[in-house]
Amino acid sequence: MKPDACTAGMCTFGRDDFTNPHPGLSFTWLASPRAWITKSRRSGAAVPVSIWVWSYFLIGVSLVVAGALCGISLRNQKLGTSHFGHDSKNKPVLFNGEYLDETMMITVVANTPQLILSICYLAYNGLFTRMLSEFEWASFSVRYATLRVTHKKGQQRSTYRLQLPYRWSIPLLVVSILLHWLYSNCIYVGIYEGYAWDQPLNPVTIRSLQYSTVAILISLCISLSVAAAPIALAMFRLPGRMVLAKNSSATISAACHCIPAASSDDTSYKHDVPLLPVKAGMQTTVSDEAELLREMATGKLIWGVVSSNALERSEYSGEGNPGHLAFGTPEQQVTEPVEGNYYAAVR
């Protein structure tokens, strides 16, 4: 796979540059040398504001409703008389002073918190996925690493089985399981079978919807703590200096317009860094370039300023020789972008 040709010359573009129009212009994708300006390096910046708003709107509304129900349960059933879990001594839920005994209805009501928790967890997990993927993306600017792919070749790494690194995915799964178990003890269906003293041969079945104040209070406290975790993670700084991808395919494509490192017998190099010629009329063919790029993709890479040798032969050669930001190999002596310096791309 090759990066989209439409993103060539946009190696300094982050997601916001592709989505927000330039001042005074009605379009966003404008390829030209631009000064490198370091933007917010907090991991929270990797999540669009709209995603933060919608995620915490969903989580916040759920917590407010849970808090209101906790207050009601505390008024009707004191902590001292409440029992954790499915206990027959816990009070039943009354509607207009009457028991609910319709099996289907009380089952749906008892499992509604589980459904709400599952929906909130999807939004919650999405926040972690976006920020942690940005951490891994940014790590390519500070150390050499291989690409993470579905079907690996060479030194490439496999994708995570649980979408996230195990040190994150396993705790998240444990938290999810714990909350589902706690919620199942907050409100539950109680079915009791007994016999009247004067009719020992005719069993009586009682169905009711019961709640545990203790379980509700514990669940609410843990839920509040868990809800604050993404905000805490958002405060951490991203490593190195790299464009903020924010899971944008256009940004990833723009950052991947590489200058392939040439083979050892290539004589078109400067400053002891062999590079593939980029101008027409050179000896190296397009198929050779594609093969070299494939070889690069299977090895260790780092993102930053690639040697400007190729740029001296590019269409930007008369514009102060702007640098080029892309992935490169150890042989290409990749360096960090410098604040205020101009960078473009070989096209």
Description:
With about 350 residues, this protein is an alpha+beta fold. It folds into two domains: about 5-40 and about 250-345, no CATH class; about 45-235, no CATH class. About 35% of the residues lie in helices and about 15% in strands. The chain contains eight helices and twelve strands. The strands form five sheets. Strands 1-12-11-10 form a four-stranded mixed sheet, with no helix packed on it. A two-stranded antiparallel ribbon has the order 2-3. Strands 4-5 form a two-stranded parallel sheet. The longest helix has about 35 residues, at about 105-140.
Q: Helices and strands in order, then pairings?
A:
Elements: H1 15-19, E1 34-35, H2 49-76, E2 94-95, E3 98-99, H3 103-139, E4 148-149, E5 157-158, H4 166-186, E6 187-196, E7 199-211, H5 213-227, H6 229-234, H7 249-254, E8 269-270, E9 273-274, H8 286-297, E10 302-306, E11 323-328, E12 342-344
Parallel strand pairs: 4-5, 11-12
Antiparallel strand pairs: 1-12, 2-3, 6-7, 8-9, 10-11
Helix pairs in contact: 2-3, 2-5, 3-4, 4-5
Give a nutshell description of this structure:
With 347 residues, the protein is α+β, with helices and mostly antiparallel strands.
What's the helical proportion of residues?
Answer: 25-40%
pLDDT averaged residue by residue: 80
Distance between the termini: 17 Å
Classification by helices and strands: alpha+beta
Helix count equals: 8
Trace the largest sheet across and list its strands.
1-12-11-10
**Strand content range:** 5-15%
Largest sheet: 4 strands, mixed
Order of helices and strands: HEHEEHEEHEEHHHEEHEEE
Number of strands: 12
Shape: elongated
Enumerate the spans where pLDDT stays under 50 for 5 or more consecutive residues: 263-283, 310-319
Radius of gyration: 29 Å
